[in-house]
């Protein structure tokens, strides 16, 4: 009989490769029940996170026998970009599934600083695994997106992924969204060639008026078609507040005076998680302007914004999967949209 009630595996699995498969096999050997926490579960698709959490669960499930699948539960996890809050939410999900006094083993591989989250669960026993060869999900996505010949791509990926997962990816690549994400991948790579990997400083504006929030629809990759906060890169001699107001005007034609906006400033926050942007290490200063019961000013998308629009706050929680990068989390910070 196992000394554990369950084994937990945490990751994004974008895509599910042989290294992940070894961790999952260890989890199945360790406990009668396995819980897989799938990160980045409610975010919009992008080149770094092409698969939905349901698709990743299906991809992983198709590599298991029927008996193994019956022992594995897949639970979605949102990205809070706040390590303490994220760990608390992960522990709560597992406790809800297993009960308060469950004996839990955490299966993982301490790769680098990006794996520090594995140290945030003192009540679970960590079982570390060695590196399973030179397999890196970023490199696998690059092969997948940049391959011109499907057969050559398949041959390159075949030694690195479970056969069933590779078959799943080949079928998925026939879907229309693959071409869109492939274009986004190349846009991100081109941006890095031109501008480098940062760090960069950006500014964003959260504008509230009469229980509505102003958003812009991105007109270009990355994130073309997703909703975002008005914002952009800080100019060389700007203060961050000046930059946020400038970007707000450039992208929406916002007409209120600077003095009015400065008086309405209700809060600021810095968002600096290393993984918050797919483009490069980007640190943003978000500014919350609360115009109270002021009638929302007329706006129009401009610059690199295809559209500008006011949304009722009550509608935002249901739009989580339509937002660019971590902009839903920025809104959640100021407005407490979800737990």
UniProtKB/TrEMBL annotation:
- Cofactor(s) needed: Mg(2+)
ATP-binding keyword on record: no
Name the domain of life.
Bacteria
- Any keyword Transferase? yes
Q: What sequence ranges are listed for the domain Nudix hydrolase?
A: 196-334
Keyword set, alphabetical order? Hydrolase, Nucleotidyltransferase, Transferase
Q: Name one Pfam family in it.
A: NUDIX
Tell me the Gene3D superfamilies matching this sequence.
HUPs, Nucleoside Triphosphate Pyrophosphohydrolase
NCBIfam families from the xrefs? cyt_tran_rel
Q: What is this protein called?
A: NUDIX domain-containing protein
Q: Give the organism the record lists.
A: Uliginosibacterium aquaticum
């Amino acid at each position: 009989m196992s000394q554990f009630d369950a084994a937990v595996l945490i990751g994004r699995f974008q895509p599910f490769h042989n290294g992940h498969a070894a961790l999952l096999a260890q989890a199945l050997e360790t406990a009668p029940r396995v819980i897989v926490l799938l990160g980045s579960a409610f975010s919009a698709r992008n080149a770094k996170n092409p698969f939905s959490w349901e698709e990743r669960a299906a991809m992983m499930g198709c590599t298991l026998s029927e008996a193994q699948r019956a022992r594995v539960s897949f639970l979605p996890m949102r990205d809070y970009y706040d390590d303490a809050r994220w760990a608390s939410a992960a522990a709560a999900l597992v406790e809800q599934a297993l009960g308060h006094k469950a004996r839990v083993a955490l299966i993982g591989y301490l790769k680098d600083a990006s794996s520090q989250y594995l140290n945030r669960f003192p009540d679970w026993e960590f079982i570390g695994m060695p590196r399973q060869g030179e397999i890196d999900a970023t490199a696998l996505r690059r092969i997948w997106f940049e391959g011109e010949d499907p057969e050559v791509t398949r041959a390159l990926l075949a030694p690195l992924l479970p056969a069933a997962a590779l078959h799943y990816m080949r079928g998925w690549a026939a879907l229309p969204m693959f071409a869109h994400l492939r274009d986004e991948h190349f846009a991100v790579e081109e941006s890095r060639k031109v501008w480098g990997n940062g760090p960069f400083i950006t500014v964003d504006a959260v504008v509230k008026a009469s229980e509505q929030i102003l958003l812009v629809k991105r007109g270009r990759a990355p994130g073309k078609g997703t909703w975002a906060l008005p914002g952009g890169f800080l100019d060389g001699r700007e203060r961050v507040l000046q930059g946020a107001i400038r970007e707000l005007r450039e992208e929406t034609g916002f007409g209120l005076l600077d003095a009015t906006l400065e008086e309405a400033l209700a809060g600021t926050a810095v968002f600096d998680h290393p993984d918050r942007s797919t483009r490069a290490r980007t640190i943003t200063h978000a500014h919350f302007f609360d115009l109270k019961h002021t009638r929302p000013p007329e706006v129009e998308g401009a610059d690199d914004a295809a559209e500008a629009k006011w949304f009722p706050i009550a509608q935002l929680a249901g739009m989580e999967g339509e937002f660019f990068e971590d902009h839903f989390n920025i809104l959640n910070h100021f407005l407490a949209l979800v737990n």
